[in-house]
Amino acid sequence: xxxLPPKKPTRQRLxxxxxxxxxxxxxxxxxxxxxxxAEAAWHGAYGTGRLDLPVxxxxxxxxxxxxxxQGNDVTDSMIECxxxxxxxxxxxxxxxxxxxxxxxxxxxxxxxxxxFDGTEASVYQxxxxxxxAALRAGQxxxxxxxxxxxxxxxxxxxxxxxxxxxxxxxxxxxxxxxIAELLARMSDVEEHRIVEDPMMGTGGMFRxxxxxxxxxxxxxxxxxxxxxxxxxIAVACAAVNSMIWGLGHDIVFHAGNALTPDWExxxxxxxxxxxxxxxxxxxxxxMIALLM
Length: 292
Ligand SMILES: C[S@@+](CC[C@H](N)C(=O)[O-])C[C@H]1O[C@@H](n2cnc3c(N)ncnc32)[C@H](O)[C@@H]1O
Known about the structure:
Number of domains: 1
Order of helices and strands: HHHHHHHHHHHEHEHEH
Bound molecules: S-adenosylmethionine
Structural class: mainly alpha
Distance between the termini: 34 Å
Largest sheet: 3 strands, parallel
Number of strands: 3
């Protein structure tokens, strides 16, 4: 987060940084470690339920680079933040995301609404405890670097947080990265194509396709990514993942039943309508500013 002022190395800061874990070098293992740390902090502090909160915290921290514009390690300054600072950072992050990508607002809404709605102060404290745990597990070393392309951190978080019985009932077992990559290699996707997964989960197949495209010198941002899932939290994760993995702006995602006819056309129309609305609002704001 480059907007944070660099902080002097206080004794407290040194104590905090000593508490940081050494992250695994393998991105898959690192993602698992972060997810386990977040899960332990969430269940330790809050108990069960409210999956949207811990998922949202990990999604928020994904906006952090590893180092700020002066080259300072961002993790240390973030660990020092108190709950109010952290929540201000979360609000600022999502306001910027919605301004720059208005067409994904409805997709991420299920995991970010609590950040803007009034909620009990204790919930913010529990959310902050999850952030501290993820920071100590070195999340910015993963999501703040190119290693973010190599794994599905949010998919790991969702899988670890959901009780096994719920995962079984929903059939939510995501394709392992190695198998997804094998399938992606076999598909040999070229630029400017449409890639569709009607039961996308958190979008792991899209990650694998994008990774293989990059290896082959192709730009995944030229692709239209079309995805659906019946689980709105998984869809919110897929939308955030599309930014983490650099999939570009041609995202057509839908939270709903893929067996519904024309879900794809509906999702496309909704996306274009949101873009139009955002453009109109910006134009009206500029006109009002001129008249003032
Ligand atoms: C086995 S997972 C596969 C996820 C992803 N395609 C992958 O390979 O990792 C199946 C997904 O389908 C979703 N699902 C089940 N029934 C669905 C339906 N009728 N419409 C849309 N999604 C559905 C579940 O929520 C789950 O995320």
